[in-house]
Amino acid sequence: MSFRKQFSLFSAVAGLFLLTSTASAAQQGQVLEHRERVAPQNRMLNERLEKLLPQLMESAQLDMWLVINREYAEDPVYFSLVPQPTFAARRTTMLIFNRLDDGTVEKLSVNTYPFGDPYQSYWSGGDLNEQWQALAKLIQEKDPQTIGINQSEHWPEADGLTKGLYDRLVAVLPETYQNRLQPAENLTVRWLETRTDSELSVLSTAVSLARGVIAEAFSAKAITPNATTTEDVAWFIRQRFEELGLDAWFMPYVTFQREGNDCTSDMPFCSVGKGVIKRGDVLHTDVGICYLKMCTDTQEMGYVLKVDEDSAPAGLKNALATGNQWQDLLTNEFISGRTGNEILAATMHASQQAGIDSSTYTHPIGFFGHAPGPTIGMWDNQGPTDVTGDWLLYPNTAYAIEGNIKQTVPEWGDQTVQIMLEQTAYFDGRRVIYAASRQTEWHLIR
To answer: Whole-model pTM?
Structure first.
């Protein structure tokens, strides 16, 4: 059995098993080899295309959806729609989703290299002009009244149709069909933000993998006080992901807060220290990985014990508990149909009532680390966010519950410490469920 399969973490087929903040590499688990990832990814894709897409197209009132892109300029939504292994939109690739009278959706392709299942090839060949004529012929045969194309002013994930491809599309269509083209941003955002049960299981696994690596990094396995640097720990995390075959969607980073360093109310982030890690430091890390197409975003806190300590100071324990309280205040405001801006305002009010100095900047997550959906605050804007903040909260969506609190620590002479937390969670329409639990205790480095 390979090292990846022996990696002692969460099972890749597990569902909502909860991994505690003290998780270690002692639990039996499995990370699938790349070849073994193809079948489950394609099963999830087929499930989405068969069950989810018809509902979303009906809700968006679109009869046809066109996803047209070229190699090296792929539409952001493209890889969520094609079977694995797919690495590019070969030459020019055209996906056509046509809603039938019975509510089902035809999945068609017009491209040089047919995909096979789940797509039916309407045309294949090597002549680009013939390809565009074939697309025009298909559209006229199906005669859709509304045709969605990926153009959007505000959602980059829904703006994948390039100017050149749009001009070519308009040029081959009769005027009658040109007038039926409309932005498909509502469909695209809903497609990208909605999670199926199978994806939720994968998300749980991916988060537990990320949290397990953090637990390793914030331990004596990776840190020797007064010798190891924050950069060393960041690269330890990156290397562990590499060894496991897990894609990092950004470079992990590690910083510290230290007694005697300023942390004031006007500082957005207090954990900015870099360099050699010392005893008594408060550590912070931010990591993000993707596994079986599901991405995670995780921030956790660690404490480097002094030689005469067996646990973190009470003031730090209380601060982490306040961070968990802020998380509860935020997730309690998740109510279907509310906008991201409304959730933010309600959370800020509840936090103020509880006497918590907090900042909320929570975002959707899934096929992308920063995915489309309702924006719930931004670190540099604790007020309403236009457009994305006005998007409604829907059931079956996932979020990085992200933000921070500031609280004084008596053991540090009442110096303020910032607790920055981020845990991936799922909203089922009634409540928020953490994908692999959340940090409630300090990672301790001896």
So the answer is: 0.91
